[in-house]
Amino acid sequence: MTSPENTVSKLGVLSRAEFIIMMAMLMALNALAIDIMLPGLQQIGASLGVENENHRQYIVSSYLAGLGFGQLIYGPLSDRFGRRAPMLYGLAVYVITAIAAAFAPSFAILLALRFIQGLGSAALRVITISIVRDVYGGRQMAEAMSMIMMVFMVIPVIAPGLGQLVLFVGNWHLIFVFIAVMASAIGVWMHLRLHETLSPTDVRPFTVKSIAAGFRIVLTNRIALNYTLASTFIFGALFGFINSAQQIYVGVYDLGAWFPVAFAGVALFMSLSSFINARLVGTFGMRRLSHGALVAFAVINLVWLVIQLLGPQPMPFALFITLFALTMFMFGWIGANFNSLAMEPLGHVAGTASSVLGFMSTVGGAAIGAAIGQGFDGTALPLIAGFFIVSVIGFAFVLIAEKGKLFQPHNQRH
């Protein structure tokens, strides 16, 4: 576990609060690049001649694919060259491709640029978590990640509204300009204030042999591997919702311009969940909180599915949004804790570990989310069924990770 003295030295000129806000903003650029697009998907599709409305979801899926694959390289790079330089490079790619996307002449070129933008933004995902692991360990890391997630969740709350606001004053091209400006500002802040956090003793050579060895360490650790697989399926449900949110809120429930408000309401529940998790995890531990949340997640999704199958069609919106908010509240307790549990035994290869785990959860989650989203048939049934299925599969992986013993305060069987 990282000592308080070492934590202070790695924070440098940053206070703990500024560090958490900075890490959250770096991670949130990924959420911004996804969620701010949602109100504009219909306009982008119409502008670029996309006839199948489900194909508009590829604007999200292509970005997520790049985000996942890019993580394979940034982790080993950051273990060799430090955290700052690869992070700034990734930010530069993010900004340049965002500006280029504003001028994309065709849907195919837009998707290619979104994939490359995802490749750049992978640095924000994998290196940010590596930095947090450099500075904190154990429950301290879980507390920090929960606080980061709480701040991070501000972006999904406001991003669709920002996208809608941009569309009121301009067209979809300005959305890409806006995210480029935001990323540039955060990049300057990070460059000026964040010191290097990688200890010289943890530097790993950037060779194929070293990278393969790091991957082997990650993939042969039962705890890390199975919590990552559980996270992959749970995040797949979230990506499935993001892909089909505009179609469900606007197409099924006819919310129109109120779509960002409904989206923000659920995101607020997730932010509240992360805040409560940060307050409780130090007392109850990551396992007790996340295991309980996973059980509740599965039960709520089962109830949601039964009502969808047997109740009126469509399900009353008040009931739909209530059950959805409850299940996403549980998701808030699962995400940060599962990530911390997966990373905890891998501090000596934090960069490579974060890249492998991030690749698996993002690419796998994006594929699962794409399957759920492409299943949209004019109803919410594919989404709700997808949520229940992934909760059962995620539960199975957690059982394997813990050898069938859940709710333990700690695990001594790594």
- CATH homologous superfamily assignment: MFS general substrate transporter like domains
Helix tally? 16
Give me the Rg, rounded.
20 Å
Helix-strand makeup class? mainly alpha
CATH topology: Growth Hormone, Chain: A
What is the end-to-end distance?
16 Å
The proportion of residues in beta strands is: under 5%
Helix percentage range: over 70%
User: What is the average of the pLDDT values?
Assistant: 88
> How many separate structural domains?
1
What's the count of strands? 0
Shape category: globular
| CATH C-level class | Mainly Alpha
State the major sheet.
none
Specify the CATH architecture.
Up-down Bundle
Low-confidence stretches: none
How would you describe this structure to a colleague?
By secondary structure, this protein is mainly α. It has one domain: Growth Hormone, Chain: A (Up-down Bundle). Helices cover 79% and strands 0% of the residues.
Indicate the topology.
Layout lengths: L3 H8 L4 H20 L5 H7 L10 H24 L2 H18 L5 H29 L2 H15 L1 H16 L3 H21 L14 H12 L2 H31 L6 H26 L1 H25 L6 H27 L6 H25 L6 H21 L13
Helix pairs in contact: 2-6, 2-7, 2-8, 2-9, 4-5, 4-6, 4-15, 5-6, 5-9, 6-15, 7-12, 7-14, 8-12, 10-15, 11-14, 11-15, 11-16, 12-13, 12-14, 13-14, 13-16
Summarize this entry quickly:
The protein has helices at about 5-10, 15-35, 40-45, 60-80, 85-100, 105-135, 140-150, 155-170, 175-195, 210-220, 220-250, 260-285, 285-310, 315-345, 350-375, 380-400. The chain is mainly alpha-helical and about 425 residues long. α5 runs antiparallel to α9 (about 175-195).
